[in-house]
Write a structure and sequence with these properties.
The chain has a single domain, classed as Vaccinia Virus protein VP39 (Rossmann fold), CATH 3.40.50.150. It contains nine helices and ten strands. Helix content is 31%, strand content 26%. The longest helix has 13 residues. By secondary structure, the chain is of the alpha/beta class.
Length: 255
């Protein structure tokens, strides 16, 4: 990936509309031409932010192109990763991306919904990671694949949290990236299920902007709550902040 590709996704949550059908990272390549949602800032932020230390079993819910499963494999060298997606084309492309990587023996991709996966596995996970669909009232796209990837008709926050609560080891963590309001809702909903928010990071496009995304870590275990924030661009357009570079430097080329 060159710097031009990096700068195309500095707006949080943006989608890469360029003709390039793949995205090159330092240690792997993600092809996303058959996925409704392309590689974007949200997934990169979540994968880079999540603490995978000591993880043995990891679950990626709504894997899309497989980017989070691949980031998890890079950061957690001893972990086995399961990745699921309801969309057949996305699941197949994720499977191909993972099979081309150096971690192909450690990643398994399933074409299943969360609801189906709940019914077919008794496995428990140290880390669950998800960049979930979150639109609930916005106008839907005529493209059914894109609607499934972006809208929460098939995977709302309540369903995701309930599934994670079932899948998590007692000391495991669920890690999400959500818009501001959905993040607040998820904390309230998680509390009703006995999941505590341990860490929340507020992400702003620039230093003076209001935050647009929040990174959230939930667990069944009780620990002190911690929050922090950072911004992506410093000063002029495409001038990236020190914190953003530090966070993503293991993945982005030229960082």
């Amino acid at each position: 990936m060159n710097l031009v590709l990096v700068t195309q996704r500095v707006t949080i949550g943006s989608v890469n509309d360029m003709a390039n059908p793949y995205f090159q990272f330092k240690q792997f390549t993600v092809w996303h031409d058959r996925c409704a949602m392309k590689v974007g800032t949200d997934s990169v932020l979540l994968g880079a932010w999540t603490d995978f230390r000591g993880a043995v079993n990891i679950l990626d819910i709504g894997t899309g192109s497989g980017i989070l499963a691949l980031m998890a494999a890079q950061k957690a060298p001893n972990a086995q990763i399961d990745a699921i997606d309801i969309d057949a084309a996305a699941a197949e492309q994720a499977r191909e991306n993972c099979s081309r990587s150096q971690w192909k023996e450690r990643i398994t991709v399933y074409h299943q919904s969360v609801q189906e996966f709940v019914d077919t596995t008794t496995k428990r996970y140290d880390i669950i990671i998800s960049n979930p669909p979150y639109f609930s009232k916005a106008l839907k796209s005529p493209d059914k694949q894109r609607t499934t990837a972006r809208h929460d008709d098939h995977l709302d926050i309540k369903t995701l949290l309930e599934a994670a609560n079932q899948f998590l080891e007692s000391t495991g963590s669920l890690n999400l990236i959500l818009p501001a309001e959905e993040g607040r809702q998820s904390i309230r909903e998680a509390a009703r299920l006995g999941l505590t928010c341990l860490h929340q990071t507020f992400v702003k496009p620039t230093e003076s902007a209001v935050y647009k995304r929040c990174l959230l870590c939930f667990s069944k275990s009780l620990s002190p709550y911690y929050e922090d924030e950072f911004f992506i661009e410093a000063g002029k357009r495409h001038s990236f902040s020190h914190d953003y570079r530090q966070l993503t430097q293991d993945f982005y080329l030229n960082f």
